[in-house]
Amino acid sequence: ETGVTQSPTHLIKTRGQQVTLRCSSQSGHNTVSWYQQALGQGPQFIFQYYREEENGRGNFPPRFSGLQFPNYSSELNVNALELDDSALYLCAAGQANEKLFFGSGTQLSVL
Amino acid sequence: GIQVEQSPPDLILQEGANSTLRCNFSDSVNNLQWFHQNPWGQLINLFYIPSGTKQNGRLSATTVATERYSLLYISSSQTTDSGVYFCAVDDYKLSFGAGTTVTVRA
């Protein structure tokens, strides 16, 4: 049990649609980051939030956006979905500069 | 960004065997973590190890930061050890290697 919960577990969308993925973590996890994991690859960093402010971003276009809320929950929003967005999306939470704990992920399929 | 290379890419073990997984990284890092990803996608922290050696049951890890590598040892492997092992280096974000897929056969 990592204390990080993601929803939904699976999602099917069509190209051009928008999607919102959710993550909740336990109290004290002031840092949350999102990763995209394509099949057969390691997770790739999308962005990170610290105390509700974005403080780092990977090589992803602006149609990937996020929010972190005061109750330690977070959202990842993806607009104008493309086929290549099909992947496992992982949320990780923890204290800054300490061990990160991952959720079980949301498997997104874009048709 | 920092490059992370893991070897071997695949490993097939007979139950009870020992093995060593390697992670090389291209630059100095604040920290390094080892993860196990189970078949359902869950990433489980194994070690948070910037340097030195740590042990947790049948698993142990050693990081030599000055030489930019880390090793994960699995002893007396069990079928439940199957999955993908990732190392990730911490330079404000986690940069993952491509993973080592371990299959332990009964």
In short:
With 111 residues, chain A is mostly beta strands.
By helix and strand content of chain B, what is the structural category?
mainly beta
Morphology of chain A: globular
Q: If you average the pLDDT of chain B, what whole number results?
A: 94
Q: What characterizes the major β-sheet of chain A?
A: 7 strands, mixed
**Count of distinct strands of chain B:** 11
What is the helical fraction of chain B, as a range of percent? Answer: under 10%
Report the total helices of chain B. Answer: 0
Number of strands of chain A: 11
N- to C-terminal distance of chain B: 40 Å
Percent in strands of chain A? over 45%
Number of helices of chain A: 0
Euclidean distance between termini CA atoms of chain A: 32 Å
Low-confidence stretches of chain B: none
Q: Low-confidence parts of chain A, pLDDT < 50 over ≥5 residues?
A: none
* Major sheet size, sense and barrel closure of chain B: 6 strands, mixed
Percent strand of chain B equals: over 45%
What shape does the CA trace of chain B take?
globular
H/E order of the elements of chain A?
EEEEEEEEEEE
